[in-house]
């Protein structure tokens, strides 16, 4: 299988996901129907309230359907964040599914939306829409690079259909003193898709789609897509690095004070707090931040697989923070054990590994 063909498919489904997210957010009637609080056993301990939306579930199932249809050997190797079971206002439960039969999918979605067929049709229209992308615009390699080959049945995929769901729901944009780094709001929302190989658990391909990256005068949000791929010694990506003289560490607003003080006082970093793990890792990949540190085990494999693959294509990587600090060796985040879904030791992301080694010396 050509790895570039898989990359193209993932780019297309990421844009389909972004379209669904934008459609849901733009229609007030539709959006009010979509939000459902997660059950306690599903929610993230960082937040008092965590949400899943039908957009989350529908995106996840649409991605699985499209990739599985194009690459049948991958169908059973695709995993995501969301439990596709949804309960409507009448207390009736249904499992969100996407099938070959469009009418069947409409009926399924309508059950969640209390038989609102108009809303269901609007969503399903996006699910089955054919996505066309300008490969030149997104800098997808051709020629020799297009011959990259991987054994398809030796690959797995992690999907986070909407990373920073709480920000997606609240949509309260808040900036920082750095214009290219947002603290919160729709711009930190991302669609994350990562491909890893089973043998070593290494991410080899990743896509981060920002559905709400730009809001032009028309009022319709436009997105950006970032991707990276590493196979053997070959590395490709579409990252346009930003050069900055600032030493910026991007952190969670709830980061432990001892880490904040160490980075600020000992290493002289400017501290910027932002939401969304995928967004923060992306900022390291683009060079707009030098590092991302998270001391708590509150991220999951679906949060990190795609962004980590992009970092790897730039000679950076994502590391298990606590394991690395204890053992004084670079312990990378791995996806080999598929029963482990949480990054229990926290994270630290660097694009420049030499700077990470300097961090460890201190």
From TrEMBL:
It comes from the Eukaryota. Pfam families: Inositol_P (PF00459). Mg(2+) binds at residues 81, 160, 162-163, 303. The keyword Lipid metabolism does not apply. Keywords: Magnesium, Metal-binding. Its cofactor is Mg(2+). Belongs to the inositol monophosphatase superfamily. This is Bisphosphate 3'-nucleotidase bpnt1/inositol polyphosphate 1-phosphatase. It comes from Culex pipiens pipiens.
């Amino acid at each position: 299988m050509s790895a570039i063909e898989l990359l193209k498919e993932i780019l297309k489904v990421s844009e389909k996901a972004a379209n669904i997210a934008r459609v849901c957010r733009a229609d007030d009637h539709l959006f009010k129907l979509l939000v459902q609080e997660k059950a306690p056993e599903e929610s993230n301990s960082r937040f008092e309230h965590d949400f899943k939306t039908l957009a989350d579930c529908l995106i996840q199932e649409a991605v699985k359907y499209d990739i599985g249809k194009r690459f049948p050997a991958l169908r059973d190797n695709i995993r995501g964040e969301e439990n596709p079971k949804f309960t409507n206002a009448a207390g009736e439960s249904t499992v969100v599914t996407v099938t070959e039969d469009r009418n069947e999918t409409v009926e399924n979605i309508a059950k969640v939306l209390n038989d609102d067929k108009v809303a269901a049709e609007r969503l399903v229209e996006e699910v089955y829409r054919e996505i066309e992308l300008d490969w030149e615009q997104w800098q997808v390699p051709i020629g020799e690079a297009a011959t990259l080959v991987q054994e398809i049945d030796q690959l797995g995929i992690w999907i986070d259909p909407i990373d920073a769901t709480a920000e997606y729901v609240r949509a309260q944009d808040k900036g920082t003193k750095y214009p290219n780094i947002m603290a919160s709001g729709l711009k930190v929302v991302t669609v994350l898709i990562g491909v890893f190989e089973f043998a070593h658990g290494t991410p080899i391909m990743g896509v981060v789609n920002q559905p709400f990256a730009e809001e032009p005068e028309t009022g319709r949000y436009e997105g950006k897509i970032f991707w990276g791929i590493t196979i053997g010694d070959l590395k490709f990506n579409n990252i346009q690095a930003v050069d900055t003289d600032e030493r910026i560490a991007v952190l969670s607003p709830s980061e432990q004070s001892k880490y904040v003080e160490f980075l600020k006082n000992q290493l002289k970093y400017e501290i910027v707090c932002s939401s969304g793990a995928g967004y923060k890792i992306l900022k390291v990949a683009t060079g707009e931040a030098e590092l991302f540190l998270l001391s708590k085990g509150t991220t999951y494999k679906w949060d990190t697989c795609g962004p980590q693959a992009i970092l790897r294509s730039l000679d950076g990587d994502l590391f298990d923070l606590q394991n690395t600090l204890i053992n004084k060796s670079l312990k990378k985040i791995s996806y080999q054990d598929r029963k482990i879904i949480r990054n229990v030791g926290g994270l630290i992301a660097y694009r420049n590994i030499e700077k990470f080694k300097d961090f460890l010396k201190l």
